[in-house]
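Morning!

This is the sequence you dropped in the shared folder:
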Amino acid sequence: MTIRGQAHILGHHIDTDVIIPARYLLTSDPAELARYVFEDLDPALRQRVRPGDILVAGENFGQGSSREHAPLAIKGLGVSCMVARSFARIFYRNAFNVGLPIVECQDAHGHTSEGDALEVDLATGQVTNVTRGEVYAGTPVPEFMQRLLASGGLVGYVRAELARKRT
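The structure's back. Tokens below.
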């Protein structure tokens, strides 16, 4: 699966409290959470992001608490994929659980500018910066995790598997 979108650049060590502040955790509705995503980091970011865009971050994105609200808020914003040098392990797993595609890639962050057109191949982990004509090697998304994403996340995957077993 290849995902295409325009890049928005984030920094290093962005924690879940900055992604979605705790004061907004009274809901699990992605659209409602998206209204406040990155409010304490860059309030204008959510205005710039268009459905299908790609967030590119530095090291240890999503550190902090284990709540699923952070990737859910990003998905609710319409982000099609995230690329980072590294993700905090709990954010990594929560992103797949809610159906948010993510790829670890060391070079994309340092070589991508705001608004660059990107293509991300989940199967190979390859990130292509179409604007610059550059290709960056990333970590392939395991096949099982790709199936989770294709089902919309863990809940969708389990529902599909249960329905399949009933027939």
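Headline: Residues 50 and 142 are 27 Å apart (CA to CA).

More detail when I'm at my desk.
O.
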